[in-house]
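pinging the channel bc i need a second pair of eyes. not urgent but kinda urgent?? the chain im working w is below, pasted from the shared doc
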Amino acid sequence: MDLGLKNKVAIVGGGSMGIGYGIADRLAGEGANLVIFARRIPKLEAAAKALMEKHGVKVVPVSADIRD
């Protein structure tokens, strides 16, 4: 499916695992570059690396806690 997201930027909260990672994976698969944020830095960095390697897009991991 082509959603017209190639070279667009998407921001995904909770992007290091679970549903957030699934959404980030799907968006990256459509060619979107990403900013993903979550609290756990090691998982966040691993997720960013995996998405970049799998889809060849840019992924910027940002450690953030939206509860604050």
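so The chain has two helices and three strands. and The mean pLDDT is 94. — does that match what u expected or am i reading it wrong
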